[in-house]
Amino acid sequence: MALEGGTPSRIDRIRRPGPLARWFDAVSMRLTPLFATPNIALAILVGVAFVLLATTLSIWARHQPLVAVGRIMTETRLMRVTLEVEDSEATSRAREAARQRTPRVFAAEMPTILELQASLENLPRTLSQVQTLDQVETSIREQFRLTPETLAAVKAEANGAEPSAQWVARVGDFIKQLQSLPILEAEAWQRASQEGLHSEITLSFEQPPSDSRVLTGVPRREIMSLGDEVRLRQTLSILARDVGFPSLLRPVVVERVLSLKRPTFRPDAAATAQAQDLAARAVEPVMSENPAGQVIFRRGDTLSEAQLALYQAELRAFGRDASAWHATLRDGSIGVVVTAITLALVAYTALFAQRINRNSARIMGICLLLALALGVGVVATALKPDLAAATAVAPTLFVSILLCIAYDQRVALAYGVLHGLLVCLALSLSIGVYAVMLLSVCSAVLTLREVRDRASIIRMSVITGLATAAATTLVGIIERPLVEGVLRELAGDAALAGASTVVLGGAVLFLLPSIERLFDITTGMTLIELRDPKHPLLRELQLRAPGTYSHSVTVANIAEAAADAIGANSLLAYVGALYHDIGKMNKPEYFVENQGGGPNKHDRLTPAMSLLVVVGHVKDGMEMARFYALPRAIQHFIESHHGTTLVEYFYHRARKRALEAAESQGLDENDVHVPDEYEFRYPGPKPQTREAAILMIADAVESAARALEDPTPARLDSLVQAIANKRLLDGQFEDCQISLRDLHRITENISRTLAGIHHSRIDYPEPAPEPKTGSVRA
User: Fold this and answer.
1) Of 402, 663, 681, 689, which is least surrounded by CB within 10 A?
2) 51 and 25 share a domain?
């Protein structure tokens, strides 16, 4: 109601919706059908699971350091809490000092020592029966450097045929003293005198079967070297004197030791390492207090092990000490953002991705793909932050490439953009990294419109790799500190990003057959293989139904040109047309294109039987397609190229027979069964795609054009227009997204193609008759 003067009433002003309300109503109307579909429960369940998984990954990743040792830092980090942490460098220095102060362990060469003891103890017995020096065996004489005087002195130590107790006691004391005076090889002595900070060494003795002992506190300076014979001789002589050997017998003992030319001890690396480890573990960690506000690392710093350890400790302490409401608010906010992005994915799927929305398996497959890519990207980047140039971008790019192959460019771009947001949210990535993702996704989608050969994927991976490497370099120059070494690091990141993209393209090429089966799609590479005339099914069609094969090739050419005219998939239309009539090879003689003259087999059949034969070629074709594992996209051409159209010839023939029978019997039309149209229609389905709709028109037009007596361009154009309008009015295009503008372009293109096929030809004159034999030529 309006007031006088045309001014709107208050009620009118209140009820009139504003722009925002009108937009909300429009979106609600688009989304309402989604909640009425049978997939809504599954979609909600899968969406909730995806939100929970993505939120969990994001919260976990944000508690990780996401930095790597040796990398140049792009931002400054401060301590948010006061924290007492272990100073790993100081602790390492203290433990290393303890290792260096630990005495090295030397193991006794007991066989050598026991051999020496036995040799010295038995010497009086060995020489007791010898009268002169010449009677002593040469090796014994050289080992002890015997002289007539020392020979006599040794014989004096014999008590009959046995050494005297005093001799045995002296030898035992000498061996004991020798065991505390380690003799090493020259190289081992050099290392022992230089290694470590210890002033003492540890000697270990092991004797069979299990008697072992350790002698500690031996000064390191007392270690002897086999290479220093002068000092060794002096030391051994003093040792022999101290244990009571007379001056005449001392050279005998010393010379026997020197004649061994073998060390009495060797370095025991395993025992030394064990002792060092025990000493290091005994050192308490060195703790340092780090107040809140202290710098952990600065922008431009090269991250060290100590800085990384401090940062990790700070992250743990901050998460542990944060109040419950603080943690809940932060994690809840992440969940809200993840939910918003997921809702954007759901809304896009409902509004613009009907192929996904209509199929439960595709919904689950897409969610699984997005979740796996997100998990791989987040976990790989958190575990190896130095590879983030590849691990953060490649999963999103992989999602876009797969969806571009499986569906279309628009779906791939939308899902790639939203998936990149999830990755950036989880890993706290900058807007620059997101820009790299977008450029990579756009480059891949734009260069991968159609996969007709391997070169298309290789070209896409190379172009996208170069674009990703260039974007990584430019963003790095903008965002990162230009300090020494950063350009080298940027070059490495760019090379890694580009190489990972090329490798990703190779992986897609390798996985392409599995991708086709998983997403139930047909790529151009498969279609090119199917269009080969040597395909077994086409070869069989050529042999059993050559007329049908010729018809199919002609229809394929017509459909391909029409698909190009409206921007549809011309290759799919061509291949679908090649296989659409394969069911006719079971009964080829019942179809006019295979009848080489003579009686028509349908003349002996009732219209109902003829209908079964004609309609049966669709069912037979589907069985053959399944047997030969033709892709689902090609099968749709077979089952839908007649849609639910009427088999007019046999329908009218059946009606005529019924009416003639009623007239001959004098019955009324209502007293006999006159067939209805639905009884003589194909079972369908109707075409679901633009390519299938094109085939329906091309198939009907090609068959009808062959029946024209004078196929002039005008008559062909009228025929095409009539058939297309008839199919349109019959509702055959209701389930495919084809517009009237597309239909107009299709008919125009088909008319031109048919005019080219049925062009007029020159009438050549008949050859003159041969003259009769014997006639005279002029």
Assistant:
1) 663
2) no
